[in-house]
Amino acid sequence: MPNEFDFIDWIRAQQKHNARVRIGIGDDLAALNWAKDELLLVGVDQVLDGVHFDSTVHLPRAIGQKAMNRNLSDCAAMACLPAAATVTFALPKGIGEDYAKELFLGIMEAGEKFDCTIVGGDTASWPGKLAITVSILGRSAGITPVGRAGAKPGDAIYVTGPLGGSILGRHMTFEPRVQLARELAANFQLHAMMDLSDGLGRDLRHICRASGVGATLRIQEIPVHPDAIQLAKNDPVVRAITDGEDYELLIVSPDDLPAPCVQIGSIESRAGLTLETKDADVTFDPSELGGWEHQL
Question: Is pLDDT at 226 greater than 80 in this prediction?
Answer without folding.
Answer: yes
